Amino acid sequence: MRGVIMDAPGEIRVDERATPTIEEPTDAIIKVAATCVCGSDLWPYRGVEDVDHAPMGHEYVGTVTEVGDEVTTVSVGDFVVGSFFASDNTCEICRAGYQSRCVHAHPMGAVGTQAEYARIPLADGTLVATPGHPDEELIPSLLAASDVLGTGWFGAVAAEVGHGKTVAVVGDGAVGLLGVLAAKHLGAERIIAMSRHPARQALAREFGATDIVVERGDEGVARIKDLTDGLGAHSVIEAVGTQESMLQAIRSARPGGHVGYVGVSHDVELPGLELFFSGVHLHGGPAPVRRFLPELIDLIWNREIDPGKVFDLTLPLADAAEGYRAMDERRATKVLLTV
Amino acid sequence: MRGVIMDAPGEIRVDERATPTIEEPTDAIIKVAATCVCGSDLWPYRGVEDVDHAPMGHEYVGTVTEVGDEVTTVSVGDFVVGSFFASDNTCEICRAGYQSRCVHAHPMGAVGTQAEYARIPLADGTLVATPGHPDEELIPSLLAASDVLGTGWFGAVAAEVGHGKTVAVVGDGAVGLLGVLAAKHLGAERIIAMSRHPARQALAREFGATDIVVERGDEGVARIKDLTDGLGAHSVIEAVGTQESMLQAIRSARPGGHVGYVGVSHDVELPGLELFFSGVHLHGGPAPVRRFLPELIDLIWNREIDPGKVFDLTLPLADAAEGYRAMDERRATKVLLTV
């Protein structure tokens, strides 16, 4: 089969890879319908993380073509959505809602779903079947649920977004934008998107942002304080993962407020004394997307949300290298690869 | 009046200070019945924080001797307990339960309650009167409520301690020990106290600890994992405030677990990537003791809890210097000063 390989930073190739087969009785094989390039794929692409001839991709939707003997909840022919961590969904950590930290978790990045087929470990605990075969127009939204929507949603839940609250969102990538969508759905009264990019500002407003703040760093924090009677936001969603963005998020929250951080932290060192006196709640990490998938699939299936709008470039798998380039150069927010 | 002054690190003097008077119509003056030396007073004593001829002390119980014209909830003659931050208890931050970050907060350390009298700003929002004049034996416990009990309690609440949970407590000072007591009262099933000090281990057990772990750092974390099926504790109370203790706390919590940290963080830099993948909730800071005071006073008044046991040395105010020395040398867990 054909699949994406990153040979080294900046070097993307679509080439033959071994077609996956059932290895464990809990596996399923899916024919990938669509996959995409993640903001986190840019870390190795830019040389911030090591990479050496690695299969790429951890987001996916597709049709089950084969199941292991122990798989009971999905069947051949089902259209499925899964998370970027395979999970058993039965251990104590999964039952508490932290499937991305399942005691048997497999990172799907190791599988490499930017490919024609993918082996999904722990299929029962990882995949959720859609109610039927989806219309073509739903596929981008279902694919978004696999990571960026689930991650933005977790950011909002981790930030304790709720009715009547003021929410600030740091980061205008796909995750930040979908954090706005999640905040709207979860009942936020006021949603402040921090963005200086006109197209992303427009999508943020479409998803429910009530205010746009273009300033960053301390100036951005001052604007948030101005908009919140000097107190700061009740909830802040951090969707970047840098020292600046984390401090911007913590400083934008009021004492006793909540910061949900889902940007993968790189070179971040949180100063203890500042964090202590901030009085904020801090929660985040790799999103337990599986926790939210049934609800997100329902919302998408019923056309209540349209998270697929974050995809602003669609390419065939064969053109994956151009997809990486477009995201690296910020010409695209999020690239969908059709398979 | 007589009061404690720290001239420089390690230099404690009890000397004449101006007797306080009403300065604002919201002030009250109290005759201090008992005060104490806080673990946080050791930071300047040891030269970790700057100090220069400062009045000392922020914990206090006593009798109201004078009130400003606008004070309505306490009267001359009332026996009162207050927090180490004065707060209006009416602003939006106070109403959310974060009185230590009240928009009008005054740190009581600036007042210096290790003295015969103290001026309490924002008396209505800061002081809680006891149901009557307390028996002598209740005074240590009421004094504990003013800071160490309220702080340990907040650590447990911030760590989301609750029924059926396993709780680990990092730190065996007065706050850690009272974190154990709080965890017991809040319904924890298993309470693991981390201590290598026999007398403190004994008090931890008396307060409700079910297990003692003497190891520290990575070995301590490994022991907590051993005791929790490899998962880590649901809730961890951090009551030290060093890099080692913070990492020990974070690493001792399971993914999705809660760390409540109340040790004042000094020279702490939290590594972002480790925190991200830990998946824990982190909350803490200066405890909003005022939130808990009414409940804590009730529990003490009704003899349901006896937090005063953390005081293992009682001295007259005139011997404050010996009290500081005993705590610095760890000869005493917590020193009560009678006035």
TrEMBL record, chains A, B:
Its cofactor is Zn(2+). Residues 7-337 form the Enoyl reductase (ER) domain. Keywords: Metal-binding, Oxidoreductase, Zinc. The keyword Zinc applies. The keyword Transcription does not apply. GO terms for molecular function: oxidoreductase activity; zinc ion binding. It comes from the Bacteria. Belongs to the zinc-containing alcohol dehydrogenase family. This is Putative zinc-containing alcohol dehydrogenase. It comes from Gordonia soli NBRC 108243.
